Amino acid sequence: SWAAVTSQPDESGETLQLLAAAHETVDDVITASGQAGSSRYLVVAERAAPGWRATVGGAELAQVDRPDGLLGFDLGSHEGPVQVTYARASRMPWLALQAGVLLVFSLLALPLRRQGGPR
Question: What is the pTM of this model?
Answer without folding.
Answer: 0.66
